[in-house]
Design a protein that fits this description.
Strand content of chain A: 5-15%
Strand order of the largest sheet of chain A: 2-1-7-6-5-3-4
Structural class of chain B: alpha/beta
Number of helices of chain B: 21
Radius of gyration of chain B: 23 Å
Structural class of chain A: alpha/beta
Largest sheet of chain A: 7 strands, antiparallel
Radius of gyration of chain A: 67 Å
Oligomer: heterodimer
Shape of chain B: globular
Number of strands of chain B: 14
């Protein structure tokens, strides 16, 4: 495209064109400014001439006016001066102003030569003002003299009044004391006091009033007031003179002296004369002051006229200068406006219109691109100026924008996937930056800690969250279980892996596992471990109770063996000591102790679930109902028994005696927990699991939470030493578990305890009642008939004991200290009818294995077991006697087995 | 052998008397006015007789009840009709009587041996304004007496130690004094009768105000601000209702419960006679109590006595900063309760020289030395020589009691801070205002604070009536303070 001829000489580029136009406009304005400045300088010279002529006159007049005004103000200050110093000070100030007044009057007379301006009166007025003020100062000095005299008189009067008070006061008080007596003690005294009282009080009153008149006179504002005060004072003086003969003799002289001094106040130097003189001086001073004020006012008015005239001239000159400035400014503004308009037109024609057209085209292309038209073309890309540059840059931008949009879409899809994953996680999840501030979290995190959405926000310091949780009762524990402060939870998590457990007040336990991120900060996984921890605890408790049970069982077994030896040795001694009472008594004590030990062992065995039970079908409600009387009797009157039985419960299959023992045990424990006073409730119900639950609830002091895991352990007791064996609850525990049930305990300190025995309901078909009550003690000791018995025990003492027992019962005993020996004896001695063996012997030949082997070799052999613990042995079957075995029990068992032996005729 | 100063004195007095009697012609009568009890009045009569024997001048002693004495004298002065030559009066009245009295002649002062008189009594009792106006014939201060036998009893000591955690010992502070009084109150004494914890006077006209003043002395006199006991010596505003006085009055009331059932009716004479009868573990009284209770002729507890200075306090009210000030240790302040009796001669007496001679005779070192050993004279030690010679005291009280008694008197008189009694014009009216309010407080009709505030209001009115500037000037003089610039 070809350009017009005039445009070819225009510079290329928008900036150069604009600079050219602005340069031309600035040149034109500079010329116009120079012309305006020259005009202003001329006007200033003219105004300067007027000022030099009028300002000194105005200044002198102003100074005169100020001095006049000051003198006018000084007059009241002079009048108000109350002492000589103040008066002197004010007089000096006035004299100084009067000198200034004279100087300025002289100066003004020299400056003002203009006819028609009246300054002739000013020096005259100034001189008059001076004379007046000097006379006023003299008059005020006279007044101050009087005032000083009055002050001195006041001081004297105060002292005089005190003197009169000291003369009259004590006497008046003494007289009043006598007169005031309700029952006069001395009539003469009373009469004298009564006579003196009136004159004394009158004197006190009159003197006080006279002092009052004097003080009033000293302050009198007018001559009339002063005259009235003087007359009143004189009257009081006469009254005092009249009173004097009636004043008691002792005071008369002293008081008369004081009153004479008081009367002096009416004389030439007294208060009245001094105040009179002072009032006259004040009146003269007032007249002079009024005249001074008038003179000063007139002087000021003259001077003000002069000042006004000078100011008017200066104002006219200033107006002229203002007019010149205004005219020049208007011309300058008009020229400047015309030049600016011209520059604007040129700019529009040669620069703006061209730029505007091209920019609009580029903007249109951008708009189309923004509307999604990807094929939008950019115009003016061929141009060489800034518009061309813009079009080319925009083209590059367009390409980049398309690429960015693609990347953004891909990123958005990935983020959505990640967020959905976090939100649906079962664990809580948080991300924190290197400064421990919360960056991201999922809803589960809030749910786990009971936080609301308002509690957290991005960039919230993690310590704030921890503090909030701590306030709500949340506690933190390190990996090894020691408690740490909630505040320290955030420490070090940005640098290494950390694991904590947090316990919420609602019982929830949350495990935190945090891992640092490579770029700083860390991610944390919050897992709800409440359930798994509870299961772990239960498992540990069960394992512990099992271990304790095994340990207790083993100990009981060993101890039982020892007891068997003791009892076995003691029993035969009875006959030989019966004749010696002392020995017999010792024997009985030893036997008693052994029996008690045997019962303790029994309880231990009960706990280790190794007691011999004789289960039956039991109606729990009936059993409990039958126990009520016994319980009431045992627990005493202070305990209230209540029952809550669910009717029509199915029977359970347990040993009724042991169940009664267990319930009695629980009732006694409950009674102890209430210090023998309170309420025990027995309740029964059928649980969903089919178990029958018996609950014993008390209102006692409860069990501390930290002791709950120990209450079933043997020998654990909270009772005082000697009060409890610590085996009661252990027995109950063992019995319930041995019976296929379980036991639960629920307690709160201060509120009471509930113990629930959950027993299985009895099956419809029961095993036969063949489990005969082996424990029932036979009354007689049936004797043997010389039959041969093989007796086996790894404990040599027990072995000897058993052999001796058998001999005494009339049997022939062959001893064997183990399985091998026994089998050998069995092979050698066919006469052996019965194997009497200990159950717990070292492997491989424990009692059961030995019996099995013996039966293999001698199927007709009768088997009798003995053991420290009771359990049922099924294979090979055989009756079990619990150590220590009483001779009559052994005799009966042997007889029963041998007599039922089919081989025995 | 007579001591040299005493011999000089006798020669001087004899010479003086001879000269005076020669002048007077030897047939005059001196009229003496004083109270009607054996105390003060008794010696006046006795010494009057010996004076007559010695000089031929008859001495007529007129004795009137104490409560009429002031009125009679004051009315006499006021009406110019007091025909007595010698007046034996309480020192506090000097303020009202001074305008009507003659000054003590120099020769009488010389004969009285001023240097032998304890400085505190000499300055506080004998001077008014700038002049010697009286001769003192008595020296008063309050002290405490206790039953040494009860205090040393092991059972009492153990019980006291257990109750208060400190040994049973004579009280150093009012707090300790109250504890001890509480401890002994109602406890059976050696005769089996219940004891009073302590004895103080509570009866109107029974000298009770000085008991209150003694309680207040320790609280109301800070070491750095002397003279504030009754008034602010700068403004003459009453201090009688400040917290120190309220505390003193409250404790004084509290102690009434530790006295006998009729404590409210006890005057000071009853205090000392009951104490001498063994009715209490302690008492507060003038030095008379020591002579009366220590002498086996007049006492059931003679030989069992101990003495202590007026109890002090660790806290003291600072009237300038208006707050309680803490001291390092309890501080006892000697209070010249009542001041003592003085002898004056009216200016109107026609026989002034002769009158002063009689006074000199009455108060001579010899006579007074004997009088202070007699519990009925009401005269307590006021001369140095009376305390310096311990032998007569040993004879009267026994060595231990005498040593204790003299030690307490000497230490009280030598105390760093000694407070004179109130002594300004209108004294009786000021005291009467306080007495009226004490009646109401003791009867439970008003509180200590309210009673003392009302007293202060009345004191203000009295001060205004008598001239505040004059009263302040005279109060400062009586308290030994320098005059304020006019």
């Amino acid at each position: 495209m070809s350009l017009p001829a005039w445009r070819r000489w225009l510079p290329v580029g928008i900036r150069r064109r604009l600079l050219l136009i602005l340069g031309l406009a600035a040149l034109a304005i500079g010329v116009a400014s120079t012309v305006a400045l020259l005009a202003l300088l001329q006007t200033r010279d003219e105004v300067g001439q007027v000022m030099a002529r009028e300002l000194p006159t105005s200044a002198a007049a102003l100074m005169l006016a100020r001095v006049s005004e000051r003198l006018q103000d000084r007059t009241p200050a002079l009048m108000a001066a109350r002492d000589a110093d103040a008066l002197q000070r004010q007089t000096e100030l006035i004299n100084r102003d009067l000198l200034t007044l004279a100087d300025e009057t002289e100066r003004l007379s020299r400056l003002v030569t203009d006819e028609g301006i009246g300054v002739d009166e000013i020096p005259h007025l100034a001189a008059r003002l001076s004379d007046n003020l000097r006379a006023l100062a003299d008059q005020l000095a006279v007044r101050a003299g009087y005032d000083g005299g009055l002050q001195r008189q006041r001081g004297r009067l105060v002292a005089l009044r005190e003197r009169v008070q000291q003369i009259l006061g004590p006497s008046i008080l003494a007289v009043a004391d006598v007169v005031g007596e309700s029952a006069p003690r001395d009539a003469d005294l009373f009469r004298r006091a009564a006579q003196a009282q009136g004159p004394l009080l009158e004197a006190e009153r009159l003197v006080g009033a006279a002092f009052g008149e004097l003080l009033l006179a000293a302050e009198a504002a007018t001559g009339d007031e002063l005259r009235i005060a003087r007359e009143t004072f004189a009257r009081r003086g006469h009254l005092l003179d009249d009173l004097m003969p009636r004043i008691p003799l002792g005071l008369r002289q002293e008081l008369a002296g004081a009153i004479a001094e008081l009367s002096d106040q009416a004389g030439d130097q007294g208060v009245f004369a001094l105040r009179d003189g002072e009032l006259a001086a004040i009146a003269k001073a007032d007249t002079l002051a009024a005249d001074s004020r008038n003179t000063a006012t007139r002087l000021k008015s003259q001077v003000d006229g002069l000042v006004h005239s000078a100011n008017a001239k200066i104002a006219r000159a200033a107006d002229a200068m203002g007019d010149a400035i205004l005219a020049n400014t208007l011309v300058f503004l008009a020229v400047s406006a015309a030049l600016v308009l011209l520059a604007t037109l040129l700019s529009y024609r040669f620069v703006v219109r061209d730029i505007s057209d091209n920019l609009r085209a580029v903007t249109g292309a951008m708009q189309r691109l923004a509307d999604g038209e990807r094929e939008a073309r950019v115009p003016a890309m061929q141009r060489r100026d800034e518009i061309g540059d813009l079009a080319r840059v925009f083209n590059v931008f367009k390409e980049n924008a398309f690429r960015m949009e693609r990347l953004d879409r891909q990123l958005s899809e990935k983020s959505s996937l990640l967020l959905a994953t976090f939100d649906s996680m079962n664990d809580g999840f948080t991300v924190c930056d290197a400064q421990d501030r919360l960056v991201a979290w999922n809803p589960r995190f809030l749910l786990l800690y009971g936080l609301s959405a308002d509690d957290v926000e991005p960039d919230l310091p993690l310590t704030r969250v921890h503090r909030l949780l701590a306030q709500r009762g949340t506690r933190a524990f390190a990996a090894l279980g020691e408690e740490i402060a909630m505040d320290s939870l955030a420490l070090g998590r940005g640098s290494m892996n950390r694991q904590y457990e947090v316990r919420c007040p609602n019982g929830r336990r949350v495990e935190l596992r945090s891992n640092p991120m490579p770029d700083g900060g860390y991610v944390t996984l919050h897992t709800d471990v409440t359930e798994s921890r509870a299961i772990d605890k239960q498992l540990r408790q069960a394992q512990k109770m099992e271990a304790v049970g095994q340990l207790t069982g083993g100990l009981a077994h060993d101890f039982n063996n020892i007891l068997a030896v003791i009892l076995g040795n003691l029993t035969p001694l009875e006959e030989s000591v019966r004749e010696t009472p002392e020995l017999h008594e010792r024997w009985q004590r030893a036997m008693g102790a052994a029996d008690r030990a045997a019962r303790q062992v029994e309880r231990l065995l009960a706990f280790s679930r190794r007691q011999r039970l004789q289960p039956e079908r039991i109606d729990v409600n009936a059993l409990l109902q039958g126990m009520i009387d016994l319980l009431e009797y045992s627990l005493g009157d202070s305990i209230r028994l209540e029952t809550a039985f669910e009717p029509d419960l199915p029977p359970v299959f347990v040993d009724p005696g042991q169940l009664e023992n267990a319930l009695m045990n629980l009732a006694l424990n409950a009674s102890d927990a209430m210090n023998g006073k309170g309420r025990i409730t027995f309740s029964t119900q059928r649980r969903d699991s089919g178990q029958i639950e018996i609950t014993v609830t008390d209102t006692g002091y409860g069990i501390a939470p930290e002791m709950m895991s120990q209450v079933f352990e043997p020998f654990f007791t909270t009772k005082a030493a000697g009060k409890g064996s610590g085996l009661g609850l252990s027995m109950v525990y063992g019995f319930v578990h041995q019976s296929g049930g379980d036991i639960g305990i629920d307690s709160e300190p201060g509120r009471g305890t509930s113990i629930s025995l959950r027993l299985p309901a009895a099956p419809a078909q029961l095993p036969s009642d063949a489990a005969a009550p082996a424990g029932d003690a036979p009354i007689a000791s049936p004797q043997g008939r010389g039959e041969t018995i093989l007796v086996v025990d790894d404990d040599p003492e027990l072995l000897q004991l058993s052999a001796e027992q058998l001999s005494r019962l009339g049997y022939r005993a062959i001893r064997a200290d183990g399985g091998e020996t026994a089998l050998a004896a069995l092979a050698q001695t066919p006469a052996i009818r019965l194997l009497y063996t200990d159950v717990a012997m070292p492997a491989p030949w424990d009692g059961v294995a030995l019996a099995r082997e013996a039966l293999q070799r001698r199927p007709d052999l009768a088997i009798l077991y003995t053991s420290g613990e009771m359990r049922e042995i099924v294979e090979p079957p055989g009756e079990l006697l619990r150590k220590p075995v009483q001779p009559e029990i052994l005799g009966a068992a042997l007889r029963r087995l041998l007599d039922s032996d089919p081989n025995d005729g | 052998m007579m001591f040299r100063p005493r011999r000089i004195f006798v020669i001087l007095v004899t010479f003086l008397l001879a000269a005076l009697c020669g002048n007077a012609g030897g047939a005059q009568t001196l009229r003496v006015l004083t109270r009607d009890t054996s105390a003060i009045g008794g010696p006046a009569v006795r010494h009057g007789r010996s004076f007559e024997t010695r000089t031929g001048t008859r001495v007529e002693v007129v004795q009137v009840p104490f409560e009429q004495l002031y009125d009679r004298i004051m009315l006499g002065f006021v009406t110019g009709r007091l025909d007595f030559d010698v007046l034996l009066i309480p020192s506090a009245w000097l303020a009202d009587f001074a305008p009507y009295l003659s000054r003590v002649p120099d020769k009488v002062l010389t004969a009285a041996r001023l240097d032998d008189i304890q400085p505190v009594y000499r300055n506080a009792l004998m001077r008014w304004g700038d002049h010697w106006m009286a001769l003192t014939i008595d020296g008063d201060l309050h002290l405490g007496a206790y039953r040494r036998d009860l205090f040393e009893d092991p059972a009492n000591r153990a019980a006291f130690q257990q109750r208060f955690g400190r040994p049973l010992a004579p009280p150093r502070s009012w707090r300790e004094y109250i504890d001890i009084a509480d401890f002994f109150s109602g406890r059976p004494g050696p005769q089996g009768k219940p004891l009073a914890g302590t004895l103080e006077a509570y009866a109107r006209n029974g000298q009770r105000i000085w008991y209150l003043f003694s309680h207040a002395a320790a609280y109301a006199n800070p070491p750095d601000h002397p003279g504030y006991m009754f008034f602010d010596p700068v403004s003459m505003q009453p201090e009688i209702d400040n917290p120190a006085w309220v505390r003193a009055l409250e404790e004084y009331l509290q102690l009434r419960r530790d006295g006998p059932a009729d404590a409210g009716r006890l005057d000071s004479e009853a205090v000392r006679t009951r104490f001498a009868a063994g009715a209490a573990a302690m008492d507060i009284d003038w030095a008379d109590t020591g002579v009366l209770a220590g002498d086996a002729r007049t006492s059931r507890i003679a030989g069992k006595l101990g003495f202590f200075p007026l109890p002090g306090s660790r806290e003291v009210w600072n009237p300038v900063s208006r707050e309680w000030q803490q001291l390092a240790a309890p501080r006892s302040v000697t209070f010249l309760a009542f001041g003592g009796w003085i002898a004056v001669v009216p200016a109107a007496s026609a026989q002034r020289d002769l009158a002063w001679s009689y006074v000199n005779w009455y108060a001579s070192p010899e006579h007074s030395a004997a009088d202070v050993l007699d519990g009925t004279t009401g005269i307590n030690p006021y001369r140095r020589s009376q305390l310096a010679d311990e032998a007569p005291w040993d004879r009267l009280l026994g060595k231990r009691q005498a040593a204790d008694y003299l030690a307490v008197l000497k230490s009280s008189l030598a105390a760093r801070q000694t407070v004179p009694d109130l002594r300004i014009p209108g004294y009786r009216a000021y005291i009467e205002a306080l007495e009226r309010q004490l009646d109401r407080v003791l009867a439970g009709a008003t509180t200590p604070q309210a009673g003392l505030s009302e007293t202060a209001r009345q004191w203000q009115a009295l001060t205004d009536r008598l001239g505040r500037n004059s009263q302040r000037r005279l109060y400062r003089q009586s308290m030994g303070l320098p005059a304020l610039p006019e």
